[in-house]
């Protein structure tokens, strides 16, 4: 015996309910009803039941449809119930009306979505007033980057990692794009343009870094799948412990000595440990994290802006003399990654997912690249491509996000993401 029971909002519209194995309910109503006294049509067969209900009375309680043994006798295997309601864009029926954002939350959201503006301002400060941001040197820079990873971890739960397992193909394509397309692009561009060994190494290093938290903001602006973006950033961040030092060693080891073990240890300390601490805090101290979770995106934006401005300030003199030489290869790296990530995704996924993978592929954690270059390479020029990447990534990613925001998602766009 199958049954459907769902609490609907006062003005909810039930558009479709289906019980698999060919047993289907297809109610059509102007308003979901609790009083079925105006039943117009009811028919039953051995393959299913259909009803059409018209009633003008408003709903005040649970609306339940329940076939009994007198209506349907079936010995088939256990049915799977799938319901879809036309109450919001996701197809889910909310248990209550959405909570309106407070004025404080609206301000936080506005400041967060203005992230590209803050990066541009930080870049200008770094170039023309470097003393205002160069205080964020290696130790403080490491602490700031670790805190940024912690703020990301506070937004995650163990369920998010289980969702990765439910979406292996979607997340896997993003992971491969991050650690196959981008590193190969970095190597090919460096070799084609015949960059000097330290600059080529720096370009390869930044191309081997994981996705940055800024990609989540850009995905939100572009109408992409934010949940998928967060999962992809998380997976690439964890994968960076192995992939970043391994790929840098393979692709740049012939140019300069690469301390792969040191890169792995630093990535573990700066990336994985703070992220795990954040996840554990969110799991075991939810009341505490719920009080600060609303401001973590803004904290992330502020930290990212500082972590973008500081590298610019620290290499400002080099940028004034060699910056023009590096703008072309770095800009090509990000532009090609955005384009290839998008078009490869379009072969298998819908528009929303393709936008998400494109942004994730094109936006790296340039701050991590800068930190690793400072700590593990003696030539200061290795850090310069990461500093230039900060600007190109932020401008390219935010510009693409704004462009896509003005391009509607097709109404029939397929959902590639399993919650």
From TrEMBL:
GO CC annotation: chloroplast envelope; membrane
UniProt membrane topology term: Multi-pass membrane protein
Primary subcellular site in the record, as a coarse category: membrane
Residue stretches spanning the membrane: 107-128, 140-158, 170-189, 195-214, 226-248, 260-280, 292-312, 324-345, 383-404
Any Pfam family the entry gives: SBF
InterPro entries: BilAc:Na_symport/Acr3, Bilac:Na_transpt, Na+/solute_symporter_sf
Subcellular location: Membrane; Plastid, Chloroplast envelope
Keyword check for Plastid: yes
Signal peptide: none
Superkingdom, natural source: Eukaryota
Keyword hit for Transmembrane helix: yes
Keywords: Chloroplast, Membrane, Plastid, Transit peptide, Transmembrane, Transmembrane helix, Transport
Family, per entry: Belongs to the bile acid:sodium symporter (BASS) (TC 2.A.28) family.
PANTHER family, per database record: SODIUM-BILE ACID COTRANSPORTER (PTHR10361), SODIUM_PYRUVATE COTRANSPORTER BASS2, CHLOROPLASTIC (PTHR10361:SF62)
The name this protein goes by in its record: Sodium/pyruvate cotransporter BASS2
Lineage: Eukaryota, Viridiplantae, Streptophyta, Embryophyta, Tracheophyta
